[in-house]
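User: I'm preparing a small set of examples for a lab meeting where we compare how different chains pack in three dimensions. I only have the primary sequence for this one, and I'd like the structure in token form so I can line it up with the others. Please keep the answer compact; I'll paste it straight into my notes.
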Amino acid sequence: MLSPADEKKLENFLEYVKDNATVELGYPVAFDLDYRSLAPFLAYNLNNIGDPFKPCSYKLNSHKFEREVVSFFAEMTRAPQDDWWGYVTNGSTEGNLYGLYLARESLPDGIVYFSQDSHYSVRKNLHFLNMRHIMIRSQANGEIDYDDLRESLKIRRDAPPIIFANIGTTMKEARDDIGTICQILDDLALNRRYIHSDAALCGGYAAFLDPRPSWDFEDGADSIAISGHKFFGAPVPCGIVLARRGNVERIARAVAYIGSFDTTITGSRNGISPLMLWYTIRSLGLKEHKARVERALEIAAYAETNFNLAGLDAQRNPQALTVVFPSPPKHVCDKWQLASSDGISHVICMPHVTRQQIDELLTDIRQAIGEPT
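Assistant: Understood. Below is the structure token output for the 373-residue chain.
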């Protein structure tokens, strides 16, 4: 039993979390889902060690649910029917590391190309894997500069390219077009290649957009990373990585200790995360997932329009949930937890975000810069 002082500490922390959740607009997390019905499973050590598609001697796992989760995302990403594999990760950084790992093992003489707007963890992953790499310029909207990519590829045609494509950049939610990238590779006759799709945020809803972005396996990707705690709203960091099975089999190793195969980055893996993702998928269904996307896009359009009406020069990429604008004073950024970089901030209109929150943020900004509200 906790002491009264420790009980009070937890109570205070819960109130702190509740209060700050109402003024969180700068990071891609969703608060509109309730997972408390899964609480009984916290009494057990669910460990998804090993390959989720292989038997394991440790029986307290949620591999059955994990297989359903990755199968759902395989369909969302139009994975090749008989040539895909995946697992639930600790987050998209792990998923990106996995994709780059498979790329390195497939093309050990390859060079990684990624844009300057790629997530900060990409360089760290490249350092871990000791992979040769070249940074490509970004366009003003955050999308990769295809002309710069083409010229860089021309210079190094002797080395197979490994393309790290952003399907929603961190600050501007720009999406690199895999179809355009594949056309460049085809034009240069670069047939030995690998494309990884970092779809951390957008992978949760890109399949529901019309027109559909060019980002998945059918468009040319060889592996895809998606976050589970972003659009799918899991209350703990997690993600999904999918890859072509032939590339995964290249790195698989049998491990007698666990009676399974080592095909993942980590050994022990969280068995609760797959349950959470499965719960969201099964309880909401495709119709409600699409409705959440439509609501979020409507709020993003509302925010962009009203920020511009207030003279804040807000911008948004097509079909994006992220609205970018000049950074307001620091105390406003701190209150609303606005992610900021190089003089710009953004709000990400996740499914739980309301018009009232946008209006209150706008009021705070106008008051801070001395304009009438």
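A couple of notes for your slides: The mean pLDDT is 95. The domain at 38-281 is CATH 3.40.640.10 (Aspartate Aminotransferase; domain 2).

User: Perfect, thanks.
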